[in-house]
Design brief:
26% of the residues lie in helices and 32% in strands. The strands form three sheets. A six-stranded antiparallel β-sheet has the order 6-7-16-15-12-13. Strands 1-2-3-5-4 form a five-stranded antiparallel β-sheet, with helices on both faces. It has a five-stranded antiparallel β-sheet with strand order 8-9-10-11-14. By secondary structure, the chain is of the alpha+beta class. The chain has two domains: 126 residues, Heat Shock Protein 90 (2-Layer Sandwich), CATH 3.30.565; 194 residues, PPM-type phosphatase domain (Phosphatase 2c, domain 1). The chain contains seven helices and 16 strands. Pfam families: HATPase_c_2, SpoIIE. InterPro entries: HATPase_C_sf, HATPase_dom, PPM-type-like_dom_sf, PPM-type_phosphatase-like_dom, Ptase_RsbX. This is Anti-sigma regulatory factor (Ser/Thr protein kinase).
Length: 336
């Protein structure tokens, strides 16, 4: 995703112009581009006016219905005591008509919001060509799973050394995250090798997949890699990691998964998988060390029920270290 800082009105115009350019290159019609421009403008202005400034993350996504565009508006302002009330037409805390926030929801094909007093606000808007109408909490739907992800390069870099991939088949989901050592083009090349090996694998054994990735990455600078497999029939979660990719399971509480020290493509003395019970409707999260791992879900009441992309956005906003590429992947099983 591309990051746009939002601190003054001139930056709103930059964000809108670039978002429309991306929509044009994606094949959005002029009507859809105009709809997108309204959404970007309204939410960007709100971020400055009500949130005291923040950032917009914007980029393409793909689900079973085709191409879509996703935007996240993140601030650390005063937050909202009642986000649902703010979505009702006529509600305003700034002396305005109070119609913009609700209108944005109606113009979006996917919309979600998370806000806590004193913690700030995060808003997700998802748009597809044509306007099917608003929905919430769907994520990027892919064969029975909702998937949300954010990848943001280190400031000043054009490419990210962090990457991810998923392989859903309805019964199970296998997902992978890689953090190529360092940052820049060589880190991105290492990550691309890991993604290619993961996508070429035919099984869902995390240790076997990680071993395959480890061997292939020897021709690169290497990196940290984690592979997670969720089997809904067996009711298990298997996790195998080398390096500092964080793996977390959320359900009634929070469980951190175990990864071994080492570097895929370099020194990895032990590659093995750990088994965990799969809680019903668990949320699985992988993130690179571009985010601090010192967070707890208790800080975010209700966040686990939000759209996966919004979950990723809130964690990115609050836990980004700011000195490296950053990636967050969130997966949830869709209700049958």
């Amino acid at each position: 995703m591309q990051r746009f800082l939002l601190g003054d009105p001139s930056q709103v115009a930059v964000a809108r112009r670039e978002a429309v350019r991306i929509a044009q290159s994606t094949g959005f019609s002029e009507d859809d581009q105009a709809r997108l421009a309204v959404v970007v403008t309204e939410l960007s202005v709100n971020t400055i006016r009500h949130g005291g400034g923040g950032q917009m993350l914007f980029g393409r996504g793909v689900d079973d219905d085709g191409v879509q565009l996703e935007g996240l508006w993140l601030d650390k302002g005063p937050g909202m005591a009642d986000p649902a009330a703010c979505l009702r037409d006529g509600f305003s805390t700034a002396g305005t008509p109070g119609n913009g926030f609700g209108a944005v929801q109606r113009m979006s094909d996917g919309f979600d919001c998370y806000s806590r007093v004193g913690q700030g606000t995060a808003v997700l808007a998802r748009l597809r060509p044509g306007h099917a109408g608003p929905s919430a909490g769907a994520g990027q739907a892919s064969r029975g799973w909702a998937i949300g992800a954010i990848v943001v390069p280190k400031a000043g870099e054009l490419v990210s050394g962090d990457s991810w991939a998923v392989r859903p088949d309805g019964r199970s989901l296998c997902c992978m995250m890689v953090d190529g050592l360092g940052h820049g083009p060589q880190a991105a090349e290492a990550a691309a090798v890991a993604v290619a090996q993961f996508e070429a694998a035919t099984d869902i054994d995390p240790a076997a997949i990680l071993e395959r990735i480890h061997l292939a990455m020897r021709a690169t600078r290497g990196g940290a890699v984690a592979v997670l497999a969720i089997d809904t029939e067996v009711g298990s979660v298997r996790f195998s990691g080398v390096g500092n990719i964080a793996g977390v399971l959320l359900s009634a509480g929070m469980r951190r998964m175990v990864s071994h020290n080492g570097t895929a493509g370099g020194i990895a003395q032990r590659i093995r998988a750990f088994d965990y019970p799969r809680p019903a409707r668990a949320v699985a999260i992988l993130h690179s060390d571009g985010l601090s791992a010192n967070w707890t879900i208790d800080t975010y009441p209700g966040l686990a029920s939000c759209d996966p992309t919004l979950i990723a956005g809130v964690l990115f906003r609050d836990q980004e270290r700011g000195r490296d590429d950053a990636a967050v992947l969130v997966v949830k099983e869709l209700a049958a």
